[in-house]
């Protein structure tokens, strides 16, 4: 069987299992390039991760990172990349939250690897991971006044006007 | 997986004042010569036994992900150089491949093989650095000095390919900036011929050396299940006995055309990590040899880019004389090459693990969001658990064998 067919089967399996277990609460799913991508409500994200790890064999948390979409109602997001090494299958999981209630349950109890990745996300996006054992800044200094990866934080000196993106028509 | 022997100390929790032990707090780092980079570890010691470690990182954080959001796609490889600077070409190629995946650019076989050569050379330098540093920290300076000439020889190849040595900025989206010169081929062939003798010499000094074996076997061991949970990848994971290698699991750049084995260890200790890297150097040499043979069979000797004028800088004389070349030159330099809306994750097998690029593009001239999956940022957090219960000198050796690169750790 060609590899893409197996992969499509795997994708279908994950979609079926997740939609069966979390009816209603779930989610948009789409295939972006070669990876299946789910959007999950933040209340269920921990349960979904747990099910993916224990039942669908996604044993490896490849990466976890924050997102910021200013202007949307659910501005802040967390993106998980999971990998099932045995099946050679990757999926992406996203969950979004509002700026006011920027709290998402931690995944450190599922994968200890999430510890620093969540600290990094907190450091740069200000997303609180509830239940995290040691949620403090990791790469920036502890008294840093902002969450620098948010889109409203200026990269360069705000008094400079010679580097204006509008010069380039986009 | 066999359980690594540890003294009984490691299970005891640290409760100051709970018993009569006098605990010492020792500041290891940030700039300790044996940490090979800027890492701070505040150790709690009972005599010479480590009971706990508190890590601080971020000393050379440079906000690459934020800078990426303001730079056109073709200006970002210079940032990736500065993550794992021991194997910069792999990072460069990984970024190019990620952008190519996003734009749907297919490369000719010749270019992919050229990339394989560059990446495997980089893997050899990375492993040379790590393994010689293990020997250095174990007290053997000679192998360190002997092996570094091979790193130098490979840097001379880089110089010939791209003009730089450490932060290479090698290749472009769509291929390379220029063809490999005759001198570069000469040097690659010379390495293939001469390096095996150097590797053998290095192995003769260490591999069955009683002192080195006693020093490294059962030092800094880590079981496979914990390693997976902690997100280990690369030689560190393979040393624990898990045969995960991105080159085989998700082949990129035509790695599926090559014959090579994935060396795995058993205990995941310093010796196993050393041996896995050592074997990988042999495999890399074999891959380069195969690539050179394959390239010899391809009649075309001039193609070094894909046919993507939007991404490949035209020759300067054409820019002055041809309208299209002028337009593409302008478009590329101003960062106006079209990138579709989309998001991709692309990973390559870096020198120390799975190096991932997660790009979200909104169709603009810069990426909307870039996240680098930096392997050593993820596995370095297991360090306190790895050294708990071991001696201070073993902690030093464990750190050098983990191949933690400060630039990559701090992004």
Keywords:
heterodimer, A: 170 residues, alpha/beta, Beta Polymerase, domain 2, five-stranded mixed beta sheet, two-stranded parallel sheet, 3 helices, 24% helix, globular, B: 411 residues, mainly alpha, Cytochrome-c3 Hydrogenase, chain B, 2 domains, three-stranded antiparallel beta sheet, 17 helices, 6 strands, 47% helix
Give me a quick take on this structure.
The complex is a heterodimer of chains A (170) and B (411). Chain A is α/β, with parallel strands linked by helices.
Taken as a percent bin, the fraction of beta residues of chain B is 5-15%
| Largest interface: pair, residues per side | A-B, 38 and 45 residues
How far is the N terminus from the C terminus of chain A?
45 Å
CATH class category of the largest domain in chain B: Mainly Alpha
**Uncertain ranges of chain A:** none
Low-confidence stretches of chain B: none
Question: What string, H for helix and E for strand, traces the elements of chain A in order?
Answer: HEEHEEEEHE
Strand content of chain A: 25-35%
CATH-scheme architecture of chain A: 2-Layer Sandwich
Order of helical and strand elements of chain B: EEEHHHHHHHHHHHHHEEEHHHH
Total domain count of chain A: 1
Instruction: Estimate the helix proportion of chain A, in percent.
Output: 10-25%
Strand order of the largest sheet of chain A: 1-2-5-4-3
Write the layout of secondary structure elements.
The complex is a heterodimer of chains A (170) and B (411).
Chain A: H1 3-21, E1 28-32, E2 35-40, H2 45-54, E3 60-68, E4 76-84, E5 89-97, E6 103-105, H3 114-125, E7 128-130
Parallel strand pairs in A: 2-5, 6-7
Antiparallel strand pairs in A: 1-2, 3-4, 4-5
Chain B: E1 23-28, E2 40-46, E3 49-56, H1 64-68, H2 77-81, H3 88-103, H4 109-137, H5 141-162, H6 182-206, H7 210-216, H8 224-229, H9 235-239, H10 246-249, H11 270-297, H12 316-321, H13 323-333, E4 341-349, E5 354-362, E6 369-373, H14 375-379, H15 383-387, H16 392-402, H17 406-410
Antiparallel strand pairs in B: 1-2, 2-3, 4-5, 5-6
């Amino acid at each position: 069987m060609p590899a893409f067919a197996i992969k499509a089967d795997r994708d279908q399996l994950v979609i079926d299992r997740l939609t069966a277990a979390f009816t209603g609460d779930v989610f948009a799913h789409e295939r972006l390039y070669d990876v299946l991508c789910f959007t999950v409500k933040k209340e269920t994200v921990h349960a979904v991760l747990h099910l993916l790890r224990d039942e669908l064999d996604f044993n490896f948390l490849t990466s976890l990172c924050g997102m910021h979409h200013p202007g949307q109602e659910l501005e802040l997001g967390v993106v998980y990349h999971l990998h099932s090494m045995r099946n050679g299958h990757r999926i992406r999981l996203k969950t979004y939250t509002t700026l006011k209630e920027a709290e998402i349950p931690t995944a450190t109890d599922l994968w200890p690897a999430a510890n620093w990745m969540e600290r990094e996300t907190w450091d740069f996006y200000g997303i609180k991971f509830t239940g995290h054992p040691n949620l403090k800044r990791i790469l920036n200094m502890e008294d840093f006044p902002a969450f620098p990866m948010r889109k409203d934080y200026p990269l360069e000196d705000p008094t400079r006007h010679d580097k204006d993106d509008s010069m380039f028509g986009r | 997986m066999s359980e690594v022997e540890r003294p009984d100390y490691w299970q005891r929790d640290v409760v100051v004042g709970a018993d009569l032990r006098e605990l010492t707090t020792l500041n290891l780092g940030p700039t300790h010569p044996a940490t090979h980079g800027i890492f701070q570890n505040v150790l709690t010691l009972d005599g010479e036994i480590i009971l706990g470690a508190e890590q601080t990182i971020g000393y050379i954080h440079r906000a690459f992900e934020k800078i990426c959001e303001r730079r056109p796609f073709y200006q970002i490889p210079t940032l990736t150089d500065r993550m794992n600077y021991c194997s910069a070409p792999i990072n460069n190629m990984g970024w190019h491949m990620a952008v190519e995946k996003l734009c749907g650019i297919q490369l000719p076989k010749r270019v992919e093989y050229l990339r394989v050569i560059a990446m495997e050379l980089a893997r050899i330098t990375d492993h040379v650095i790590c393994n010689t540093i293990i020997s250095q920290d174990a007290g053997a300076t000679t192998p360190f000095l002997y092996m570094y000439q091979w790193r130098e020889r490979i840097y001379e190849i880089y110089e010939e390919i791209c003009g730089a040595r450490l932060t290479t900025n090698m290749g472009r989206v769509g291929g390379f900036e220029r063809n490999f010169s005759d001198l570069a081929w000469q040097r690659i062939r010379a390495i293939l011929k001469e390096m095996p003798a150097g590797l053998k010499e290095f192995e003769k000094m260490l591999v069955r050396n009683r002192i080195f074996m006693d020093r490294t076997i059962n030092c800094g061991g880590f079981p496979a299940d914990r390693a997976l949970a902690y997100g280990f990848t690369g030689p560190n994971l393979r040393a624990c006995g898990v045969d995960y290698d991105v080159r085989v699991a998700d082949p990129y750049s035509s790695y599926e055309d090559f014959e090579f084995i994935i060396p795995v260890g058993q205990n995941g200790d310093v010796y196993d990590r050393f041996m896995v890297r050592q074997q990988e150097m042999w495999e890399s040499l074999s891959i380069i040899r195969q690539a050179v043979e394959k390239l010899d069979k391809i009649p075309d000797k001039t193609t070094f880019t894909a046919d993507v004028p939007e991404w490949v800088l035209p020759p300067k004389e054409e820019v002055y004389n041809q309208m299209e070349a002028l337009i593409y030159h302008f478009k590329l330099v101003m960062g106006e090459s079209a990138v579709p809306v989309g998001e991709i994750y692309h990973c390559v097998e870096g020198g120390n693990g799975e190096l991932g690029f997660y790009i979200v593009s909104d169709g603009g001239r810069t990426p909307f969001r870039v996240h680098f999956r930096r392997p050593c940022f993820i596995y370095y957090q297991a360090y306190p658990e790895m050294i708990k219960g071991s001696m201070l000198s073993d902690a030093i050796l464990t750190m050098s064998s983990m191949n933690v690169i400060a630039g990559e750790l701090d992004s």
